[in-house]
Amino acid sequence: MNCIHLLLLTNFKMIVSIITNINHIQITIGDLMNKLMEFLQKTVEILIVEDEMVLAIDMESSLEEMGYEISGIESTAQDAIKHVNENKPDIVIMDINLKGYKSGLEAAKEIWQTHKIPIIFLTSYSDDLTVKKSMESEPYAYLIKPCREKDIDIAIKTALHKHNYFFKNKNLMSEQIVIDLAQNYKYDRTKRVLSKGLNSIKLTGNELKFFDILSENPKESVSFEQIISYIYRGESLSDMGKLRTLVYRLRAKLDAEVFENVYEFGYRLKLD
After folding, report:
1. Which strands form 193-196's sheet, in the order they lie side by side?
2. Which of 37, 64, 83, 244 would suit a FRET pair with 150, their CA atoms being 20 to 30 Å apart?
3. DSSP code of 140?
């Protein structure tokens, strides 16, 4: 079986939706392709974490032929973490099962939490338990060995584009941004706190992500696809079950409607 994109976060249609829905700016497909090419032509440094050296060297050669730069090759979780701390690559391709006392999953989780560098898992395992554990490090793709060069290239490009989109405003977050919602609710994007009056509302990590994505452009609607890919990182975009459950439980916590459904499209905040 060829490489399976269990967690590939986006496709061309989604990229079109993301870009063309920002502030309702209408652009042509030609403009979109020019923007994508401009972004993807920038030098991209990749760290390969693989304890089978023959595979690692073969991947390094393939990636260099695609035009990427290799930040390095590491064979253990400890060395991978140290490499990222010192070199700050743009993306990490991580084998889940590494030799040593730390797994690739543990290394990826630490790298993501510390540096927010996108992770692509490369593994021989696709069982439910392994996939579930991998979610903790919020990978952008999950590729099954053996996989084609084209699959890796697509995973890298889409992961980088998605990462660039969701974190493009991170430098602005040093300024306090508080959004006034309906019924005296407020959402502090800087502190990631939902409150009513003097009382803060305890939210789960995914509930906070829900408010993060809706509050990025508070007056705009956000599509189901964008919300699902942002919160669940690679879940099937056609599976609405988890999102519906999240919304149901979130509404049960609140005594007022601070966001609303946009028919057959997505959700948006209800502003004061």
Report:
1. 178-180, 185-188, 193-196, 199-201
2. 83
3. S
